[in-house]
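hey can u check if this looks right to u? its 415 residues, i copy pasted from the old doc so theres a chance i mangled smth
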Amino acid sequence: MTVDEQAAPAAEKAALKLTAGSIFTAGKMNVGRVLAMAAAAAPAGSTDPVDVVLADRLVTERDDILTPTVADGDVDPARMDRRYSLTRVRDLQLPGGKGTGDFVVMRGDLAAVLTQCKISREDRAVAVKNADLSSRRGFRPLAVASAPVGDGDVVGDFTFQGYIELRSTAPAGFADDVAASPDSWARVNLWSASLRLQHWSNVLAIVVLSLTGYLIMDPFFGPSATDQAQQAGYLMGWVRVIHFTTAFIWLVIGAARVVSAFRSRDRYLRWPTLWPLKKKDDVKNLGEVVGHYLFIRKHAPLYLAHNPLQQLGYTGMYVLGAIQMVTGLTLYGMVHKNSSWFWGLVSTPVDWFGITNVRVFHAVIMFLIWAFVILHIYLAVRSDSLERHGGISSMINGGVWMRRGAKPVDSPKIG
């Protein structure tokens, strides 16, 4: 299948059938608008399989979006040396009832389209990683970009809007079975499997480390020191082994989260989300969210992923976790400080502050983490009960439910 199928022979076109999969949006438009823009980049009456499948999908899912008629002279098809088409779309319906506008729509190979767009390295990395996943599932991404046409037919800069998954269908018929969603709700895949695995691994690690760490700090059961003559056994030794082993596993989990912050294909997991207060509106929304949680405001701004208060809390948790890992390594290194220069260096804070102070600090961080855990569970249950979006179950199945037509602050319009 070539991009836009412009070079396919007529007989091959007639026999070829396509199916459209998921639609990836770069965050500027919702999936319906990306689909409409891709479908609009075709002349009237086109029998090209790509044009047909996009038009059918648009009519089926977004009959509220009108597709303008494109004249043959406004279409510059893809070529072997230019793997994208350029289409002048006049009177394209704008979102939010803002009238219409003239655009040049670029449609074709993802890599070729991205080279023509002004796009940040972060957004490019997210798009490429999502496209790689689509390719592994047997789809070919059809990229879509647009540029406004101003006075004097001056074409502005191209903005990458997203891509649509396409793949050929066997003659007997091949399509993914997709469960029909209720008309008023849409399920949005949000959390990746790797993040969910990290989340529950963190939960297990924190529980084990807290229980064993508290027992090491204050042995509240088992043989006491006065029972040495009666074979006290090796209970505390096993507790320490479990604690240290789990601690090193937790270090691996933390390293995996750092890597995903720079390499994840999900924009909500990348490092820029760790600090959500990037502009004045973010600070305003933070205040409204705090008012909502304090029962001062009835409603709060809608977010698809984390609202500013949640994200600041999670970022703070990452900081606490990192400090806990450092202090834990310091205490562990004290035992082995004479065995190598590395552990001698790691245990240096003990020489500065004293082993008692480091241990107390390590214990205080544990209690702060558990304070966060308790608050996190309460707010998660409260939010899920009020908003009915399946936020708790999303950490199991990866998706949340949002009302169609809703406009979260951190994503395009739903639906």
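Confidence is low (pLDDT under 50) at residues 1-15, 171-183.
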